[in-house]
Amino acid sequence: MKKKEVIDHIVAWLKDYSDKSNTNGFVVGISGGIDSALTSTLCAKTGKQVICLNMPIRQHKAEYDRGLEHIAWLKEQYNNVSSYEVELTKTFQAMEEIFPEGIQDRLTMANTRARLRMTTLYAFACHHKMLVAGTGNKVEDFGIGFFTKYGDGGVDLSPIAGLMKSEVFMLAQELGVVDSIRAAKPTDGLFADGRSDEDQIGATYDELEWAMLFLENRQDAGQLSERQKTVLEIYTRMHKANQHKMNPIPVCEIPQELK
Question: What structural domains and CATH numbers belong to the chain?
Answer without folding.
Answer: 3-199 (3.40.50.620)
